[in-house]
């Protein structure tokens, strides 16, 4: 191990490992924000294509278990609060913007933690994609409709609630955050 002078007594001592500068061990904040922007653009492009090609509730069968559809969701996940009278639009917009600010702060503080930052970027891009929908349209545009017979006891005709690319990114991000925490706990044992 390298030796360096001891400033106090003029002697040499073993060098202490240097702590990495924030972001030095991985991509920095701008990389993670660019990833979130890429997710946001892909989400908004897919919604733009659906809005330009389909009328509400129109669908196209793609496979025996998947349809493309245009559905408007004024609520949150699984249409939570969809019939709440309109206030939910601004509540979920404010919640999404607040979460986005918090996520950017976390990314700035932990940009060197790859899995954690990847997960946060996915959540950020997805959350902002849905916030834009709420601000522009008053609802979120959903288009991915999966359906299986085994879901019939839970969902009408076995159709899982329609969702979009933003929701996919948020789900990937949530799974990444759980995995990151499990790995962190395992590492500390």
TrEMBL record:
Enzyme type, top EC level: hydrolase
GO molecular function annotation: aspartic-type endopeptidase activity
One Pfam short name: Peptidase_A8
Reactions catalysed according to its record: Release of signal peptides from bacterial membrane prolipoproteins. Hydrolyzes -Xaa-Yaa-Zaa-|-(S,diacylglyceryl)Cys-, in which Xaa is hydrophobic (preferably Leu), and Yaa (Ala or Ser) and Zaa (Gly or Ala) have small, neutral side chains
Primary localization: membrane
EC number(s) per entry: 3.4.23.36
Keywords, alphabetical: Aspartyl protease, Cell membrane, Hydrolase, Lipoprotein, Membrane, Protease, Transmembrane, Transmembrane helix
Membrane topology designation: Multi-pass membrane protein
Membrane-spanning parts: 21-42, 90-108, 115-140, 160-179
GO BP terms in the entry: proteolysis
Subcellular location field: Cell membrane
Pathway: Protein modification; lipoprotein biosynthesis (signal peptide cleavage)
Any single GO CC term annotated in Swiss-Prot or TrEMBL for this entry: plasma membrane
Record's function text: This protein specifically catalyzes the removal of signal peptides from prolipoproteins.
Family to which the UniProt record says this protein belongs: Belongs to the peptidase A8 family.
The protein, known as: Lipoprotein signal peptidase
Species this chain originates from: Malikia spinosa
